[in-house]
Design brief:
The complex is a heterodimer of chains A (about 325) and B (about 260).
Chain A: E1 14-23, E2 26-35, E3 41-45, H1 52-59, E4 67-72, E5 75-77, H2 81-84, E6 88-91, H3 103-112, H4 118-131, H5 147-158, E7 165-169, H6 177-192, E8 196-201, H7 204-210, E9 213-218, E10 221-226, H8 228-235, E11 239-245, H9 257-269, E12 272-276, E13 279-284, H10 288-296, E14 300-306, H11 309-317
Parallel strand pairs in A: 3-8, 3-9, 6-7, 7-8
Antiparallel strand pairs in A: 1-2, 1-4, 4-5, 9-10, 11-13, 11-14, 12-13
Chain B: H1 6-9, H2 19-32, H3 34-59, H4 68-99, H5 102-108, H6 113-141, H7 153-174, H8 180-195, H9 207-215, H10 217-229, H11 237-263
Helix pairs in contact in B: 2-6, 3-4, 3-6, 4-6, 4-7, 4-10, 6-7, 6-11, 7-10, 7-11, 10-11
Classes of the chains: A alpha/beta (about 325), B mainly alpha (about 260).
Main location (chain B): membrane
Keywords (chain B): Cell inner membrane, Cell membrane, Membrane, Nodulation, Transmembrane, Transmembrane helix, Transport
Subunit structure (chain B): The complex is composed of two ATP-binding proteins (NodI) and two transmembrane proteins (NodJ).
């Protein structure tokens, strides 16, 4: 074994510089830089097809980048990816628990892939099952578990090697609210105990809840990066007023409803506004004058709320469907 | 997806001891279903052996100085070894690779694809050995085995399992779905079984067919297994072993390259 280079303990759990990945003419990742700090939760947020999963596959050494440098657990990837994965746990997007095994057997078999001996793994199984809330399911078959239980077991499986870095690819997609909240609680617990977490999601509330820092990704590029609060403050006005319904005012050029109202008045109150379908979204720093104006209109309905990450996301990635 | 150059995709396999836990995973699954699995693997060759053996045996009293059922026994050991290894790497490995995504899970741990595919190959040969041993025991009980060289059949069965496991893994790497494997059986395995001396001596076939058979692995397995079962020393041992080994190594190399292209692109 080579000696541990000086300062390796301080190395970033994952550092990516200038990452590119092309499939034919299609550049899925088009120059990504990111550096995780030890102990933080970093979230990659982006619509479907933004390049999130490809970035993770490159980071784990499962596919060769077309360009750029990757260091996972301080080791160059893909050259030393296998060694680096010793220190990493992965929760994949698609469930791939072993259907032929019970919960406990899934953990045992997975631990062996890390070179752990059976005694070590067996000693860890009770705490892993407890963490996942599956103590009573120790000998249950995978088919008998609910979607939420499977996700929790996958999370427990990713912890069998006590990783420094936990990578989760859309961990709560398809789960009901109770199951999502339970996963979030467990992730917060891990982060509090010092595990670095890298998460991809397209749920804004998930990113806002968990992330110390986040990056919004689209078309293979990072559009903005920072803490959720900083990103919102930097990218968007503080308040949003959503206006919809009928409007009885005087419309110009044949439009009606919220759109007609917006064309006539929104510009006077909002720094920026946008009409999508039946709704006008007004972005402003002080909503009071607009609210006073709206109170005098008849027919319109409106909702005032603070700006959130979703507003930033939609501003940066647009409202077009991605499927 | 021509992002990875060909010489890199088909670079030499890099096998390490990390294939062992993957082999153990498959063994643990098998152990849970061992009895039905062995009985299932046993039923087909036994039906052929005793159905054909005693049925045709009435018409064909002797082949090369032995009873037809004794002649057929070696063929059944070889073809059922081939079938057992083929089924494992086709249907079961495809399930693990494509349907259950078991390989994806393993690759997230510190195990590389080379070790996973190698584990599948060794596992298929192991399973072929387990069912081969079961068949040997049954035919021994019926007095169809000369015990002098019979233990040499064990490494031979394992090698035959490796050869056909490797060939099957090539198909698995290319398969879009389970349906694909039907072609492999009907266009390759079944015709090969008919021309390789499993059911009748290949010498009575046209010369061109005999040449074709000699280029395929099954005839070489039969040429080794038949004398061993009858208590004789096979001839051209090195040639037969070399052909089986070449199919094993070559098949594995190609299969691994195709699998890398499929999963690591």
């Amino acid at each position: 074994m080579p000696a541990v280079p000086h300062g390796l303990a301080l190395a970033s759990p994952l550092e990516i510089r200038g990452l590119r990945k092309r499939y034919g003419d299609n550049e899925v990742v088009a120059g990504i830089d990111l550096r995780l700090n030890a102990g933080e939760c970093f979230t990659l947020l982006g619509p479907n097809g933004a390049g999130k999963t490809t970035t993770l596959r490159c980071a784990l050494g499962l596919t060769r980048p077309s360009g750029g440098e990757i260091f996972l657990a301080g080791l160059p990837v893909p050259e030393r990816a296998r060694e680096a994965r010793m220190r990493v746990g992965v929760v994949p997007q698609q469930d791939n628990l072993d259907p032929d095994f019970t919960c406990a057997e899934n953990l045992l078999v997975y631990g062996r892939y890390f070179g752990l001996d059976d005694a070590t793994i067996t000693a860890r199984i009770p705490e892993l099952l407890a963490f996942a809330g599956l103590e009573s399911k120790r000998d249950a078959r995978i088919q008998s578990l609910s979607g939420g239980m499977k996700r929790r077991l996958t999370l427990a499986r990713a912890l069998v090697n006590r990783p420094d870095l936990l990578i989760l690819d859309e961990p709560t997609t398809g789960l009901d609210p109770q199951a999502r909240h339970l996963i979030w609680e467990r992730l917060k617990q891990l982060i509090r105990n010092g595990t670095t977490v890298l998460l991809t999601t397209h749920f804004m509330d998930e990113a806002e809840r968990l992330a110390d820092r986040l990056a919004i990704l689209d078309a293979g590029r990072i559009l903005t990066e920072g803490s959720p609060r900083d990103v919102i403050a930097a990218q968007i006005e503080a308040q949003v007023v959503e206006v919809y319904g009928d409007w009885n005012g005087t419309a110009r050029n044949g439009t009606s409803g919220a759109q007609a109202w917006a064309e006539a008045h929104a510009g006077a109150f909002a720094r920026r506004y946008e009409v999508s379908g039946e709704t006008a979204f007004c972005y402003l720093d002080d909503a009071a004058p607009l609210m006073a104006h709206l109170a005098e209109q008849s027919g319109l309905r409106y909702l005032r709320r603070p700006a959130n990450l979703e507003d930033v996301f939609l501003k940066l990635t647009g409202r077009d469907l991605r499927d | 997806m021509a992002t990875t150059p060909l010489h890199s995709t088909f670079r030499a396999p890099r096998i390490t001891h990390r294939f062992v836990p993957v082999w153990r995973r498959n063994f643990l699954v098998w152990r849970k279903l061992a009895l039905p699995s062995v009985l299932g693997n046993l039923a087909d060759p036994m039906i052929y052996l005793f159905g054909l053996g005693f049925g045709i045996g009435m018409l064909v009293p002797e082949i090369g100085g032995v009873s037809y059922v004794s002649f057929l026994a070696a063929g059944m050991v070889c073809s059922s070894t081939m079938n057992s290894a083929s089924f494992e790497v086709l249907y079961s490995s495809f399930s693990r690779m494509h349907v259950q995504r078991t390989w994806d899970a393993i690759m997230n741990a510190p195990v590389d694809l080379d070790d996973i595919v190698f584990a599948e190959l060794v596992w298929a040969a192991s399973k072929a050995l387990l069912s081969g041993v079961a068949i040997l025991i049954v035919i021994a009980v019926f007095g169809l085995v000369d015990s002098r060289y019979v233990l040499w059949l064990l490494p031979l069965i394992f090698l035959v399992g490796l050869s056909f496991g490797a060939l099957g893994l090539v198909m698995t790497a290319l398969a879009p779905s389970y349906d694909f494997f039907m072609y492999y059986f009907t266009l390759f395995i079944t015709p090969m079984t008919l021309i390789s001396g499993v059911f009748f001596p290949a010498e009575q076939l046209p010369a061109a067919v005999q040449v074709a058979a000699s280029l395929l692995p099954l005839s070489h397995a039969v040429e080794l297994a038949r004398p061993l079962l009858l208590g004789k020393v096979p001839s051209d041992v090195v040639l037969h072993l070399a052909v089986l080994a070449a199919y094993g190594v070559g098949g594995f190399w190609v299969a691994l390259g195709l699998t890398r292209r499929r999963l690591l692109g």
